[in-house]
What we know:
Layout: H1 8-30, H2 41-44, H3 52-72, H4 78-96, H5 106-125, H6 139-161, H7 166-195
Helix pairs in contact: 1-3, 1-7, 3-4, 4-5, 5-6, 5-7, 6-7
Amino acid sequence: MQLVPRWILLSSGCAPLLLIAGWTIAAALEGSAYDPVTQTISVLAAYGSPGFWVMSGALLALGVCHLLTAWGLRPAALAGRLALGGGGVAALAVVLIPAPSSGGSLRHGSVAAVGFGLLAVWPVLAADRSATAPWGLRPTPALAATALMTVGAAWFVVEMHHHGAPGVAERVVTSMQSLWPFVVAASCLRHREHAKPPA
């Protein structure tokens, strides 16, 4: 198995922390005008909103974290690493194409949808079928992660169409998507430690 650099725990571990801190602080800056249940994260990153710089900064950091993790996650299959990196690029693009302060945006929505899709499929694309693969790269956990993220994305779409609680659904699925790279990275490092021959 190819070695995984220890710094990958930092890049993958910071992703969910920065994302959650970003939407929490940005929502606090918005005040009572923002409803985290019915409004999406994109509203916080809309140009001109009080939390614009905070949420945009968090999304930029998230994108960089995903790119670094994809680069360092050498035991993962190349297709999965490319999908994870593509999800990072999509996070950067979402900042460059922010949602409008009111109404929807086809360009913003399309970029966000591509990011959702790439981050949902990367676990199964990164899977390693060998018997010695780290837990996070085994087919069963990878398929389960992809299935959960896909269901979460479908839930978000349903909530958007029915004007329900898209903010909750989006936060659940983006939390899963930002946390899974850390799970995979930690399992690779743990696997490496256990695979070391005794001194």
